[in-house]
Amino acid sequence: MRPGRPLVRFLCAGAAVTALATPLLAVPAQAATTPGQIPDVLPAPGPGVTRIQIGAFNDLHGRLEAPDETDDGAPVGGAAQLAGVFDAMRAKNPDTLVVSVGDNVGASTFTSFIQQDAPTVKALNAMGVAVSAAGNHEFDQGYADLTDRLGVNGRPGADGAAPLAAFPYLAANVLRADGSHALPAFATTEVGGVRVGFVGVVTQQTASLVAPDGIQGLQFTDPVAAANSVAAQLSDGNPANDEADVVVLLAHEGSSGTDCATVGTEGAFGRIVQGADPQFDAILSGHTHLRYDCEFPVAGRAVPRPVLSAESYSTAVDDLVLDVDTATGDVVAAGHQVLDVVGFAPNAAVQQIVDDAVAFADVRGREPVGSVTADITRAFSGDDDDRGTQSPLGNLIADAQLQQTEGAGAQIAFENPGGIRDDLLFAASGGEGDGVVTYAEAAAVQPFANSVVTLTLTGAQVRRVLEEQWQPAGSSRPFLALGVSQGFFFTYDDAAPAGQHVKSVTLDGAEIDPAAQYRVTVNSFLASGGDNFTTLAEGTDRTELGRTDLEAFTAYLGLPQNQGLAPDTEPRYAVAAAPAPTVPAPAPTTTAPAAVVPTTPPAAVAPTARPSTRPTSTAVAAAPSGGGPLAYTGAQTAPWLAAGAALVLAGGLLVTAAARRRRV
Predict the structure, then answer these.
(1) Which of 102, 343, 586, 617 registers the highest number of CB atoms within 10 A of its CB?
(2) Hey, how many other C-beta atoms are within 10 angstroms of the C-beta on 120?
(3) Hey, what CATH class is 50-354+619-626 in?
(4) What does the pLDDT look like over 528-574, one tens digit per residue?
(5) Model confidence over 75-87: pLDDT tens digits?
(6) Which positions make up the signal peptide (predicted)?
(7) C-alpha 202: how far from its chain's center?
(8) With the CA atoms of 168, 174, 176 and 178 taken in that order, what torsion angle do they form, in degrees rounded to the nearest 10?
(9) pTM value?
(10) 376-575 maps to which CATH number?
């Protein structure tokens, strides 16, 4: 880098350029598995060539401590070892930059959450992160929190307070109502004499993934058009608006699969891969927490474009190596791999930050808040949490919020599945003893610190809220199963047309009156229409509890009558009964029919309880990055199955009891 250069401007308007005129072919690359080493991915550069290296990670989510370990007990990931990977990269090639692809904070573990993720950002500063794309979770606490507390430019926020981040957050596709950029669109720096530009974009679905109240006035636009307009600026030959030899796209959007053919063709991320301007030399991605290491030919480019993602939670890093012609600034070779964060020496400064955070959290986290007699969990599909199925834990949280807001007249409570990030397990996590729920364990379940809101809806609006569990076309999850409070029940037909899925809705056994008013409690994320539950934003006569959802949950767990809670495995919804078949009237006869002796219908089979299991840990990845802060910037139960059938009417009405099952 060359300190002292003026701040770089960023482009506010742009034109999209199609990148791939030739057929798209994916070439997977092999990930290195040797612990503690940075394998070579290219032969030694020849004369007139400068080699630079970029290490990247994504979706850290405040994982300061190692989230996993190998079979022989070696830690996998963790902030200090992540920094150790970058130390090893710099030792091998001093011309190394370290970058993040977003979601550094939010949905964090207790160690980071209890201090509002300040230790995580401090660790990123210490490991020399140069720049980060903004992820959707950077907006969890609202735009003002991102700009004024986290800091987007490495400069003081609006109130003059020093920002937490010493690096810029980038998002070219986040605009204010007047069309101006709400965050810097790009940042540039020099390493080894090569000018490198980073352009950031965030998933266009961000508006439905965070509380709308916190992002009022912001637009999340097409990431391809936004990124391409900036790429054009950085390569237009006009030094007045900044130029870059190498341009890298940091896309907080990702593939839904790990096969390179899928990565390059399907969904929102496939459109980014296919539509990114040829000026982009590489695409580093995240958001979907998957690991892929691919490259794709691009029209007009001699070198295929690498496209990488390093899972999540600091367990892997992207290692991108680019050879640049010193005379022309063109990339003449690209090597890449995704490395496991295993076997690297931890960085001492970052380790101290982690140790201090652990000590602080340990004191707060050991406080007991309640007790359980068995695991109370989310729903699961295989090893993945299943947000398309009601869960005992989601319903328990709804019960808690209902009880805590009875003073506001609450009659019904709903909980969104994405707000539940861990399980309440019977086994002790430390020295507290089996069955004891600690503050840290409760906080891991509900880490977002949403407020609790009670509002008024009509019965018709309550029904619409249930219909909104079937998400709009193109959503990453087609169905989001709300947790519902005790006494509330509904039936549905999944095959019915949109807006007609819900067949009956009852409260304490009585059908909901469409014209009557009901007091409904939800968290502030849902209350403002989050997760596409837009009807909740229409609620009137709003009352806030004055405590967060975590505080409401721990208060409920602490009630004397709630000690020794057991999971309620009875679903609070069911498939609607099929209509009775039409039986044609018999032809008249002159002989009276014999009397029919009624038979006893078979007993209904009770729904089976969801197994109380938890998914096993799997290694997740973070990406490599290098260098220091940039000096110059542009302006997130195994499904229940109600088994069995009962023939209820003589002549045969078949009622199938089955709970909805959908994969995350």
Answers:
(1) 102
(2) 28
(3) alpha beta
(4) 899 999 999 999 999 888 778 998 999 999 999 999 999 999 999 99
(5) 999 999 999 999 9
(6) 1-31
(7) 12
(8) 120
(9) 0.72
(10) 3.90.780.10
